[in-house]
């Protein structure tokens, strides 16, 4: 932890292997007793010290053999290839939980559960997300293909809307819940189908979620 300050306002898509809603959001064990996840977000406004982060995209692939808090996880960070060296360093520091108060953000918490952090990949990140519409597309050549969409009523096929509201959360305050599909390559290979996803506005700083 340093005295350096940072803030990001971003739009996020997360997809994991749990059932819709993801019990991990409520301090319960993951649906299948392990955690696999893909995330992507685009920063609309942000800075890390004197470095602006506006417009940059970030993605990551995660896998834990058990519940996240039990550790032994692995992570593959992926950084927008359009980032300057200073921006790249800033994004990786935020993702690694550096320059952040302990327990303040999802990135800092995750960092304490990882045994393996693979070398960052610089890539063209094709990412779109509509939070209210509960749709997203994340595509990174030879590495990630993921999408999210609304949950549908199994009888009528109508879209079903649900939210997760965490007033004291370390990632978001409110997220829209959906479902997703993903295939990843590289160091962490995943195949996820019709499982939990969420879509959220992020407003984070070195001290946590900005209310």
Short description:
The protein has about 210 residues and is mainly β. About 10% of the residues lie in helices and about 50% in strands.
Quote the average pLDDT: 97
- The count of helical stretches stands at 2
Radius of gyration over alpha carbons?
16 Å
Q: Shape from CA axes? A: globular
CATH class: Mainly Beta
Low-confidence stretches: none
Fold-level CATH name:
Acetoacetate decarboxylase-like
Distance between the termini: 22 Å
Structural class: mainly beta
Helix content estimate: under 10%
The assigned CATH architecture is Beta Barrel
Biggest β-sheet: count, sense, barrel? 14 strands, mixed
- N-to-C order of helices and strands: EEEEEHHEEEEEEEEEEE
Count of strand segments: 16
Which key phrases capture this entry?
14-stranded mixed β-sheet; 2 helices; mainly beta; Acetoacetate decarboxylase-like; 211 residues
List the helices and strands and how they pair.
Layout (H helix, E strand, L loop, with lengths): L5 E11 L18 E14 L2 E2 L4 E8 L8 E8 L4 H11 L10 H6 L2 E4 L3 E3 L2 E5 L4 E6 L3 E6 L1 E2 L6 E2 L2 E3 L8 E11 L6 E15 L2 E2 L2
Parallel strand pairs: 5-6, 5-7
Antiparallel strand pairs: 1-2, 1-15, 2-3, 2-4, 4-5, 8-9, 9-10, 10-14, 11-12, 13-14, 14-15, 15-16
